[in-house]
Design a protein that fits this description.
The structure holds two protein chains of two kinds.
Chain A: H1 9-32, H2 49-56, H3 58-91, H4 97-105, H5 112-125, H6 132-156, H7 160-168, H8 173-201, H9 205-210, H10 217-224, H11 231-262
Chain B: H1 2-12, E1 16-25, E2 28-38, E3 43-47, H2 54-62, E4 69-74, E5 77-78, E6 89-92, H3 104-113, H4 119-132, H5 148-160, E7 166-170, H6 178-195, E8 198-203, H7 206-212, E9 215-220, E10 223-228, H8 230-235, H9 240-245, E11 250-259, E12 263-268, E13 272-277, E14 289-294, E15 300-302, E16 311-322, E17 326-332, E18 340-345, E19 358-363, E20 368-371
Helix pairs in contact in B: 3-4, 3-5, 4-5
The chains are: A mainly alpha, B alpha+beta.
């Protein structure tokens, strides 16, 4: 039903918006394979030397290891805390519930630099050494609200009588949690793990302030940007990160569809879809 | 001999004994002190409008909530502090609560599987339960492939496989369409007779309760207003509230003129002086004022000279609702503001009156129930 005469402004706007959003990202893989140390057009030729260069950089390897450690630890801790908080907030009534939940959600809107600086001050006052664990602490603080937001909707959509039915059929509370509750909120838990993992992986400010001598990946990349010669290497690193993120997203969506199908929900209409 | 004597004594003991059961949620008193016995093997209904506390009472019996005070005993055993998973009751939930990540067999066998029952025995009992509710061969169906009626049957099979002493049903038919509901009313009744387990049904649908139950507890404002058989509830309601909730009832003001040993004499609006026998006075009387109730089918319209009744009066038809087999007339009686509803069966040759027609209304002393 499109009218051929007048241009459809909404379509043009959408296309322009997508170009603005993704063109810079597309430059990343292009220059990562360009055979020149200077990042500009025209392209010189194809090379994989920047990737080989990454392979040989030990500092990068330890940064990747640090980041993976921080991101994995953060996503597990914040999701466990998120499960507890989301379940408590959707199931039980307790005094000052709104106030408590509000305070937990505050880091969502608090400037990260304030969180970073105040944590730094507190840690130093307490006489604790900065390490990857202090980064984990900061990341958990900002990740828990995201985790709760994702999980609260999973718990809210959960029919409470399912747990009561299990209890009624002679299965205790703990076993009920593992047999009924956990499998049914699993998609929410996977989403929470993925989101918090991603947030922690690319978080810079808190990591920059709270890491001691061990740089995480964003901190390492920032340190490399000061040297023009290192720029193509950063591009190559960015390309790898891009590929890994895409893979994670596809996995998450595949898992979501699989679990939605299993529980009989309408795959297309169920909320939280990425594609 | 003594053993059989003991067992018959145990047989006589109510399966559920409720004593002064109260429940408070925050400032709200939901149950105000319920005392009742539920007999072994009966189909018992808790009937009442929403908010009367019937579901709360069912959940207290099932062990999902604890009473604020009072006691509940099941099969002679006090249930205070016993959680749902250790009670000899099973529940069919209003939403059916079918586990969405299990298929039909896994749903039905869920309770038994946790008891470490041998595999062959488990499969045999699952198949037996499925056939009991008419779902033979559907064990491999996924939960989301089931229709509303099938979900309900799975919920029933899942509860009955546990061989409970009492089966609790929380508005089990409310999600079904009318035709299926009527079919399930009959099936549930037959199933209850076949398994011999005590069923406790919570419903707000008086017709459902009348059709299925051995006894009905009509609840209002957190207590039992009347506990009786369906026939007794319908013909001898103890209060205006019960009368209005079960079927249709016309109410008239009355004045007590005299009280004799065999009954009382009343002056009823529109009807005049009536002598009512004791058997028709179930409620407690207070003072000289009373309310009487008359069911629509206890009044007759007299169509021609050959139709006669014990007493008659003349009214005016103000509304006619035609149901095919029945016609419901709203008839204005002299001196009464609210028209009385009269139902007539449309037997052969009987014509249907229309609004504005004068109508002769026939009645007798046995048409009247005295309330309050």
């Amino acid at each position: 039903m499109s009218n051929a005469r007048t241009p459809n402004w909404l379509v043009l706007y959408a296309i322009g918006y997508l170009i603005f959003l993704y063109a810079p990202v597309l430059l990343l893989p292009i220059f990562a394979f360009n055979d020149s140390a200077i990042v500009n057009f025209p392209l010189r030729g194809f090379t994989t030397q920047w990737f080989e260069g990454l392979w040989a950089t030990d500092a990068l390897h330890s940064a990747v290891r640090n980041s993976l450690f921080v991101a994995l630890t953060t996503c597990v801790i914040s999701t466990v805390l998120g499960v507890c908080a989301a379940r408590a907030s959707t199931r039980y009534q307790f005094p000052a519930k709104r106030g408590i939940m509000g305070l937990i959600m505050v880091p969502l809107v608090l400037p990260e630099i304030i969180v970073a600086v105040s944590l730094l001050v507190v840690l130093i006052q307490l006489g604790l050494d900065l390490s990857l664990w202090s980064v984990v602490l900061g990341h958990v603080l900002i990740c828990v609200p995201f985790s709760i937001a994702v999980l609260a909707s999973a718990f809210r959509n959960f029919d409470r009588s399912l747990e009561e039915a299990s209890l009624d059929l002679g299965v205790g509370r703990v076993a009920t949690f593992f047999k009924i509750t956990l499998p049914l909120v699993a998609p929410g838990i996977i989403s929470s793990l993925l989101i918090t993992f991603t947030i922690s992986l690319d978080e810079f400010i808190i990591a920059f302030f709270l890491t001691g001598t061990d740089a995480t990946l964003p901190v390492y990349i920032w340190s490399q940007l000061r040297f023009t010669a290192k720029l193509p290497g950063v591009m190559a690193l960015g390309t790898i990160l891009l590929a890994v993120s895409l893979l994670l997203l596809i996995l998450a969506e595949w898992f979501r569809r699989w679990s939605a199908k299993r529980s009989g929900a309408d795959v297309e209409s169920s909320a939280g879809g990425l594609f | 001999m003594s053993a059989s004597g003991q067992s018959s004594e145990a047989q006589d003991r109510p399966i559920i004994e409720l004593r002064e059961v109260k429940k408070q949620f925050g400032p709200v008193q939901v149950l105000t002190g319920i005392t009742a016995d539920i007999r072994r093997g009966e189909f018992f209904s808790l009937l009442g409008p929403s908010g009367c506390g019937k579901t709360t009472l069912l959940r207290l019996i099932g062990g999902f909530d604890e009473p604020t005070s009072g006691s509940i005993a099941i099969d002679g055993r006090p249930m205070a502090g016993v959680p749902a998973n250790h009670r000899p009751t099973n529940m069919v939930f209003q939403s059916y609560a079918i586990f969405p990540h299990f298929n039909v067999s896994e749903n039905v066998g869920y309770g038994l599987r946790s008891q470490r029952i041998e595999r062959g025995e488990l499969e045999r009992r699952v198949a037996e339960s499925l056939s009991m509710v008419g779902l033979e061969g559907l064990g491999a169906r996924a939960a989301h492939e089931l229709s509303g009626g099938q979900r309900q049957r799975v919920a029933l099979a899942r509860a009955l496989i546990m061989r409970p002493k009492v089966l609790l049903l929380d508005e089990p038919l409310s999600a079904l369409d009318k035709k299926l509901r009527q079919q399930m009313e009959v099936e549930l009744r037959q199933l209850q007779r076949a398994v011999g387990i005590t069923f406790i049904l919570v419903t707000h649908d008086q017709e459902e309760a009348l059709i299925m139950s051995d006894r009905i507890a009509v609840m209002a404002d957190g207590n039992i207003e009347q506990l009786a058989s369906p026939q007794e509830l319908y013909s001898r309601p103890v209060s205006r509230r019960v009368a209005a909730f079960i079927g249709v009832m016309n109410f008239f003001d009355a004045q007590v003129l005299a009280e004799q040993s065999e009954g009382i004499t009343l002056e009823v609006a529109a009807f005049g002086k009536v002598e009512v026998p004791r058997a028709q006075i179930p409620g407690k009387m207070n003072g000289s004022r009373a309310t009487v109730g008359v069911r629509p089918e206890m009044l007759t319209l007299l169509f021609d000279e050959s139709d006669v009744a014990e007493r008659e009066l003349v009214g005016e038809v103000v509304d006619v609702v035609y149901y095919g087999d029945m016609t419901y007339y709203d008839v204005r009686l002299p001196g009464v503001e609210k028209p009385a509803t009269i139902s007539m069966r449309n037997t052969a040759g009987r014509r249907v009156l229309s609004s504005g027609d004068k109508a002769r209304v026939g009645w007798g002393a046995e048409s009247i129930v005295v309330l309050e």
